[in-house]
Amino acid sequence: MVIAGLAIWWWFFAKDEENIATLYRNSEIDHSMRIHVATFDAEESDKKYNINNCEMSARLRNANIVALINSSEKSHSQDVGFWCEIGSYDEDGPQRIFFSAEFPTNTE
């Protein structure tokens, strides 16, 4: 009975990590920080749906940072930005040094 319950739970709630995308940002104070911003885990037939939406969101947010830098007399670090990775949030991972920015942003 317990096994059946676990199987039913897994069927309804387990997510395929390859279809999940996580949006991260770092910090101007500590560039090695991996701050969780959002998780894209919609169940769609298009396997790239979540990563495409995550990357579009990252490009748009990075474009806002670039616009802020360009319009401000204050100096801002261009080493700060948003990026996406496949899978659920992971505290450990690679540090980013390049952040794609685009406005208006392409959907793919």
Give the low-pLDDT segments.
none
Mean pLDDT: 83
Element order: H for helix, E for strand: HEEHE
Main sheet strand line-up = 2-1-3
Q: Give the helix/strand class.
A: alpha+beta
How many discrete domains? 1
Largest sheet: 3 strands, antiparallel
Distance between the termini: 45 Å
Report helical residue fraction. Answer: 25-40%
Radius of gyration: 17 Å
Protein model, in words:
The chain has helices spanning 2-13, 49-71, and strands at residues 21-25, 35-40, 82-86. It has 108 residues and is an alpha+beta fold. The chain has one domain (16-108). The protein has a 3-stranded antiparallel beta sheet, with helices on one face. The longest helix is centred in the middle third of the chain and has 23 residues, at 49-71.
